[in-house]
Amino acid sequence: MSGRVRDFILLVQNNIELLTEISKLDNYSISHQNLFSLTTHLYSNLTDIQVTNKIDTLCETKPFPILDFHESDDEFTLASRVGDLILWLSNNLHLASHRIILAIIEDMSAAIEAVGNILNSTEINLYLLKKHMATLRRSNTRLSECASENLFSIGTQIQEFKEELIDYETKQVKARFLLDEYLDPMRDIIDPEGPMVSTIENAEQKLLQIESSITINKEIRDESKRIVQELLRNKKNTREVHWNALSQLQPILAPYTRPPSDLVKGASRALSDINKHGSKSIKLWKHFKLVRSTGPSFLLGEDQIQSWFQRIRDIQKEDIRVNISTEINTEYRENIPILSETNRLKLSMPISDLLEFILDNFPSHTLTECSSAAIDILVQFGSFESVHLGELQTYSRENQVLEAAEIAIK
Amino acid sequence: MQLNEQITQAIWELLRGKHIDLDHRHFSIIKENEEVFIQHVNALGYQFLSSDLGFYYLQRDGKKEETQTSSRFCCLFFVTVQRLDEIKDTDEPLDLNYLLNRKGFDLEALLNFNQLDDTLKRMFRDVELTSNEKIGEVLNKMSTMHFTEKLENGNWRFRRPIARLVDTALKYADMEEEE
User: Fold this and answer.
1) What is the ipTM metric for this complex?
2) Contact A270 B172 (CB under 8 A)
3) Is the confidence at residue A200, as pLDDT, over 80?
4) How many CA atoms lie within 13 A of B15 on its CB side?
5) Whole-number pLDDT of residue A189
6) Does B101 touch chain A (CB under 8 A)?
7) Those residues with Cβ within 8 angstroms of residue A10's Cβ, 6 or more apart along the chain or in another chain
8) Considering only Cβ atoms within 10 Å of each terminal Cβ, which end of chain B, N or C, has fewer?
9) Which of A84, A165, A247, A288 to mutate to test the interface with B (most CBs of B within 10 A)?
10) A with B: how many residue pairs have Cβ under 8 Å apart?
């Protein structure tokens, strides 16, 4: 559990009476004046300044303020998550808290002490002895009821805690409350060296003393024997129930109460930031840059990348020296216009050699460009009955040479 | 500048955003020709990065589509870590080693949209992950980039490049410490 969550829980615990009172109000809202009066009433030892400081502290908690002040209404609102949590603890958690069990044990202890005093006195007051034995028996019955009720409630709580779809931080807070308020103190109470076991053992001793005392009448001695048996049975049951609860609840609560690894801490912090500000504003991508070469956002298209690879391969094949002298005339050449050339061809008919015709008209184009254009013009011309293929001719331009049949158009 | 078919393929994979780790068939060719790779990817405007944990990847200033994908990956990863921490029943710390477990994790069940609490659902919605299908798409995308791998038993295994997302989470942990 992070320090921030721990501090938060501590603050809730320290102000639980005040927060419980606010959680009972409509919409968890309370006016400024009423809050001040309520705080003064609940914490009567505080001065006015200390009360104001207490309220201010509750308004400045992290990860979120426990109390939110609305200036327009002059009202404070309890954070709904805290309000819900307190209601859950007070209304739904039907566990008999360690305080109740401890109070029962204290009652038993007082009764045993009184019994001891009576037994040590010179004259045994049977009326008082019976009265204290009855108290002991009653307390024992209450302890037994608490144990069986807790057995049921703890089972329900385990199931609810496991299935509840609530956020991680709230689960951490609930887990910490369950541990602090119920499980840890309960473990101390039922410990073999704890107050419950020692009180019952002490009671057993005193009751055995009554049982073996011939100066006390049989009815009381028999009653004493019955109480011893009940106490021993109850000690066993109460311990079993709570040990079972501890062993079942603790592994479920553990993930929320053990110290988190740095990774868990970081992920939790990041999620909290996303929750508060949204993923766009915290710019996650700045911390985790990705590249994907496909799709519209890619710097270069698939074709460009392919031709880039092709270019690299070509460079590897032949060592081309590129002259970048400014004296070289790198005149811009347009593509051969197929449509207008086809029209010109029609006007110039008959043509004895189509390729020769194009080469004459486009002296700055390469042989490859002219021969491609010749084929395109032929296709565009369309009237193939006018086309006549002649003998093989050799055409050349610069260092390119092409041997092809002469094409005449008549 | 040597550029054989294997190098070309490896560059292609990196350009497609894949992370090439020790288990990948192109790992050794990259390791032996790091200089060649650096020259080529730099020429295309990318940074060539290698991790000590044994994987290579590219980086450049994100475009819109990439920033969305990045946010989705981060969000899904952070939620996964939190959910794994909730179900973890050992004392082993949840760190990179824990994530790299070769048996993998049942992420589809763990991240089942309908089973998430409202807060986690809201975070998923923030990055437009509004259904199990969309979550599945992101897991698949992570798989194509070699962050994860789907095993035959249906579990998802994290691969070494997931260390990048772990580092991102650790940055947030540092921020918390600083505060």
Assistant:
1) 0.77
2) yes
3) yes
4) 27
5) 75
6) no
7) none
8) C
9) A288
10) 177
- Single out the residue in A39, A68, A87 at which a domain terminates: A87
pTM: 0.48
Contact across the interface for B70 and A284, Cβ inside 8 Å: yes
Tell which wins on pLDDT, A183 or A119. A119
Does A107 fall in a domain? Answer: yes
Minimum-distance CB partner of B126 among A261, A274, A300: A274
Q: Which of A122-126, A285-289, A397-401, B20-24 has the lowest mean pLDDT?
A: A285-289
pLDDT, position A121: 84
Q: Which of A197-201, B12-16, B60-64, B115-119 has the lowest mean pLDDT?
A: B60-64
Q: So what's the pLDDT on residue A315?
A: 63
Annotate A248-262 with b (16+ C-beta within 10 A) or e (fewer). ebeebbebbbeebbb
Residue A204 included in any domain: yes
Inspect the interface and report whether the beta carbons of A165 and B3 lie closer than 8 Å.
no
Domain interval for residue B23 = 5-59
Across the interface, whether the CB atoms of A261 and B95 are under 8 A apart is answered yes
Res. A298 pLDDT band, cuts 50 70 90: very low
Residue A299 has pLDDT above 50, yes or no: no
Is A266 contained in some domain?
yes
Does one domain contain both A265 and A214? yes
B4, B36, B70, B90, best to mutate vs chain A, most A CBs in 10 Å: B70
Average pLDDT over residues A84-109: 70
Asked if the Cβ–Cβ distance from A284 to B15 is below 8 Å, we say no
Pick the residue from chain B with its C-alpha nearest to A291: B17
At residue B98, does pLDDT exceed 80?
yes
Give me the percent of chain A exceeding a pLDDT of 90: 1
Secondary structure in 3-state letters for chain B: CCCCHHHHHHHHHHHCCCCEECCCCCHHHHHHCHHHHHHHHHHCCCEEEEECCCEEEEECCCCHHHHHHHHHHHHHHHHHHHHHHHHCCCCCCCCHHHHCCCCCECHHHHCCHHHCCHHHHHHHHHCCCCCHHHHHHHHHHHHHCCCEEECCCCCEEECHHHHHHHHHHHHHHHHHHHC
Residues B81 and B9 in one domain: no
Choose one of B22, B43, B59: the last residue of a domain. Answer: B59
